[in-house]
Amino acid sequence: MADWGDRPQPPERGGERETIEGFLDLQRASVVWKARGLTDELAAKRLLPSITTVSGVIRHLADVERSWFREDMDGQSDVPARWTDDDPDGEWRVTAEDSLAEIIADYEAACAESREVASRYQLDDVCRGNDQRFTLRWIELHMIEETARHLGHVDVLREQLDGRTGE
Question: Which of 7, 77, 83, 90 has a CB 3.0–4.6 Å from the CB of 29, allowing a cystine?
Answer without folding.
Answer: 7
